[in-house]
Fold these 2 entries.
Entry 1:
Amino acid sequence: MRAALLTAPGQPLEQVELPDPEPGPGQVLLRVRACGVCRTDLHVRDGELPEPKLPLVLGHQIVGTVVDGGGAFADGARVGVPWLGWTCGECRFCRSGRENLCERALFTGYTLDGGYAELAVADARYCFALPDGPSDTALAPLLCAGLIGFRALRFTGDAERLGLYGFGASAHIVAQLARAEGRRVFAFTRPGDEQAQSLALELGAEWAGASGEHPEELDAAIIFAPAGELVPQALAAVGAGGIVVCAGIHMSDIPSFPYELLWRERHIRSVANLTRADGDGLFAALREHPVHTEVEVHPLEQAEQVLARLRAGEVRGAAVLEISPAAGPAAR
Ligand SMILES: [Zn+2]
Ligand SMILES: [Zn+2]
């Protein structure tokens, strides 16, 4: 099969031919139709996350059709593979509904091979059956940007005035979910990023501007951008009792800040990974309120260039690799 392969952190992905993967017990074999490109892929590629499997096929937002369902899925079914690829089921986190924190968890496109390839294998228990209707490329960003965003949004409780810092793949989905829940959305971007600001306004944000501006006091903020200096900025923007949720897997150091910014029961928390229950919750929410995913579609051969676009902040919405497009309705 064709694949884009990371052989060493900091090195460009290589376009290679690999032997077809063979599914083990409990695994499904998928023909990859589309795979979303996540900022986490960039962090792995750039060596900002420790100890990836090497060599590694990146990609943890896989939309595929089942070639061998191993009894769990019908052949030809369309399924999604997310970041959480395997958990132990035995540790204190797994036994308390927090499999996202499992100490032995394996992650798709990081410690397991992912979806920047024509074929992929995945543990059937962690795959999601996908709804009919949306295209493969439209669904792909839901499998991480959507899932992590959904989990982050839940941590904001009943916050009405919601700030989103960094308006990319995840925020553009969260903005729509938040609007459907009757929240008010404020989008904070890099100064002058008119592309992201216009997308935010199109998708229901009532205000879009530069981080550091203060349109109105917020009840909660979610930070998607990997910039630690946004934490004190967001704390300054939320009112008493407000929460700042850091949704990324990697962030630059947070500068020190006066205790006054945390005082009056403001709090900060991170979001780590996802649980399968998050996926069930997201897909249930989407049945009631479908969202539009804004995607730019590229071929597998462009994987390295797409990561460069993401690094440069040039992607509007989400980037997706289209790998083996279905030929038509009969082929899907
Ligand atoms: Zn565990
Ligand atoms: Zn991701």
Entry 2:
Amino acid sequence: MHEYSIVQAILHRVQETARQRGATSVSSVTVRIGEAAGVEVDLLRTAWDIFRAAGGLGEPELRVLGMSVAWECATCGDPIAAGGPLRCPLCGYTARLVSGDEILLERVELELPEPGPGPVAERASPYLRGEHV
Ligand SMILES: [Zn+2]
């Protein structure tokens, strides 16, 4: 299932981050999921509960944030409102998606070994999928 492979990709990235920082466990993982990413958040949570302990980093909590969809004209770059016709009001060209299909790893809360300042938030290289530059 699609959501299972997303969870495995997230856990893989979290494991890399934890290893780089020498973390002993991970307390929470925050992902941002675009409206157009095609992810069922309920299924993602179910998959998370099944797989989260498999990373050997405790049982991190999953937090899910949303991201709305944004469109622009593929020719002139004029922003185009979501929900209306996906066509540029200025030049008539079709719209392209600017954002909203991404899956981002926003934040990983790591538990570092003693002596430490407590949980550390790490902003990992964020894009799991769908990089718009
Ligand atoms: Zn245009």
